[in-house]
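re: ur question from earlier - yeah i can do the single chain one, its not a big deal. heres the input i used so u can compare w yours
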Amino acid sequence: MSSRFKNNNLYKFSILLLMLFSELYSQEFENHYSLKLKFNPSDYWWSTYNNYGQENSKTNFNYNGNYKKNNAQYYFSVFISEDRINMGESFLQYKIFDKTYIKAGKYYRDFSTYLNDQLSSGSLLVSNNAESMPKVGFLSSYNLKKNKNFNFNYGVAHAIFEKNNFYKKAPMLHEKFIYLQHSKKNIEWSIGLVHEAIWGGSVIGGRMPGNQPSTIKDFFKIIISADGPDEGGSHPNALGNHLGIWDFNYKISKDSKIINLYYQHFFEDTSGLRFANRFDGLWGVELTNYIKDSTILIEYINTLNQNIDPPYIDDAYYNHGIYQMGWSYKGYTIGNPFINHLEAVPIEVVHIAFDKEKNDKFYGFKTSKITSSNKPIDFSVFFIKNFSEKYYIGIAINGNKDKSGFNFTFSTNQ
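and the output i got, formated as tokens:
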């Protein structure tokens, strides 16, 4: 029996199994199904990136289910293409105390919650570009008793990468964040600090091949970004590969309109932490009008200062000499897809997106231009029609001035 025939049978069987499972539990689960047909599939930007790490395929069937009961939330998603089945974001979140949760499974992030992932070019640290990683985390929130307008949100998580041609043993990911948030009347602002680090594992090739430090002592070094083994220099680098952001958000609400301003500032070491790399990062403004059910988003990405003063400021935000696959998971950039995870390529990008809902129709577009290169503008235009509040038919055209293709999608909520 040919592998293609086997894959087709597996594809059909998986769809039937998911439909049967969700039908049995339809009274308890919120279910969503989506069947996407791609015509002339190719590596168009908005067909390939910010697409949950899915490979280009003529046919895709997606399912996600959400279930909440008492202190627990279960979320499950799966992507089925012609030749592969991937589990998407799927996790269990359990409330252990007031405003305190544990979370385990495959999931993206619990920080930068203001970001519109459907329209944005993507978070600098964890976007929807790659598959979600296996992760276990703890998150909580604390209100100041003297001034309840102030709130602290914080969390810590541990994830694992995959074994591949560069990693004999999968490296690990350490993640932590803390935000100070203030809300009063129609104004809300927050300042956050997020730190990520790749560490441990066993690498093939690179600057330091072999097993990487991974003891409990090394883990505590990762937490505080302490120095690793001396490589012969006057001052050894921090153990592992570190990346983080200062995260600023300011939001104003008035007359059913919201202005959302944000800035994510890159840092790889203490120089970036002190803004020595100037204003590299992601700048954004989002305008939402709830009366007209419309949103417009404009973003600017800048990484031109990552190597402005070597060796003092010689950053490479998404790549590393030891971990040769850099800031990526299963071949896709974990953060913003416009930034190269294999080499330091300074860029500037302007990204504009818009969507609007009117009656039973939903439409919009996304368009991006790498202004630091001659690459043409990439765009996606989409239109969705709602039938009886349960069934949706959508058409999307993706491409640039040189080439384009379109998708047809049928989806339903049960």
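The CA atoms of residues 218 and 239 lie 8 Å apart. not sure if urs matches, ping me
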